[in-house]
Fold this protein.
Amino acid sequence: MDNIDIQIINLLQKNARISISEISQCVNLSVSAVSERLRKLENSGYIKQYTTILDPEKMQKDLTVIMFVSLERSHFSAKFQEFVENEDEILECHYLAGSYDYSLKIITRNTLSLQRIMNTLKSLPGIRKTQTNVILSTMKKQYSVKPKIEDFQ
């Protein structure tokens, strides 16, 4: 990974639909050189996927919460994980060290739909406690890590 690869990644992070010819103009390389670099970045796993990010408000999803979940014992985690995998409004699930076992990021329509998720979750075997925090506003939202050349030296 060098400065040109980082420039290419930064351009793609701003707009994944940017054309290879536009990238080549921005980084002063030929289209074939940019194509080769992209192929190497994809094959080496630096670029995991290209995706579309939807605006939750346009999808009538006006409520975002972070929910912390604590299980009684680890053998209850299979049912919990199955629930998380099958619930489309849970966007992220992180296994934690600390007072709680998991953190969930949930984006849903309203408090009624959140209540449905919470009631279903709390009915699962082994759920000891939850804590739900409503996100009022977001100051920063970044979808991926930003590469820096010093990370590769």
